[in-house]
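Retro notes (design track)

What went well: tokenization of the new backbones is finally stable.
What didn't: we kept losing track of which sequence belonged to which structure.
Fix going forward: every design gets posted as structure first, then sequence, in one message. First example under the new rule, 159 residues:
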């Protein structure tokens, strides 16, 4: 039968360049995601000089800014942070769906990890839980995802 080859990413990288695109809308939540993200990156040994944070008006604008960051070819990964909280209108679906599709498109078009640290929740309470209380910090999770994906992409080699 032979040996199955398994390829995995890890978190051992230190010399990487990361861009964080953080939405200002719902900043009371996104600020917590950004703090968790930055803390995690620095705990993993990523130097502050290798991290760029870009403020974006809202989650819907994240894909365009992430595309511009990707075009620059200066970053090994991009982390998108935002919070879309459902209201009583269909606005939520347009913003959340457009953001998710746009970020996935950037990742595929540029063969670049784009970590999805955008909360899409029904209530403010759910957002608070995912920004550092009961459900952990999704900004920190996105940071770890970005690092693991950089490692995995490097292990898989160039396109």
């Amino acid at each position: 039968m032979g040996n199955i080859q398994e390829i995995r990413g890890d978190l051992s990288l230190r010399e990487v360049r990361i861009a964080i695109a953080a939405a200002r809308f719902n900043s009371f939540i996104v600020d917590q995601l950004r703090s968790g993200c930055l803390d995690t990156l620095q705990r993993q040994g990523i130097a502050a000089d290798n991290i760029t944070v870009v403020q974006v008006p809202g989650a819907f604008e994240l894909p365009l800014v992430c595309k511009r960051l990707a075009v620059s070819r200066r970053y090994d990964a991009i982390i998108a942070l935002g919070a879309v909280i459902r209201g009583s209108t269909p606005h939520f679906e347009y913003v959340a769906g457009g953001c998710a599709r746009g970020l996935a498109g950037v990742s595929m078009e540029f063969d670049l990890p784009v970590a999805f640290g955008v909360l899409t929740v029904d209530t403010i309470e759910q957002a608070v839980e995912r920004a550092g209380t009961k459900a952990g910090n999704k900004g920190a999770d996105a940071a770890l995802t970005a690092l693991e994906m950089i490692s995995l992409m490097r292990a898989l080699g160039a396109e």
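Added context from the reviewer: The helical segments are 27-43, 62-71, 91-110, 124-130, 138-156.
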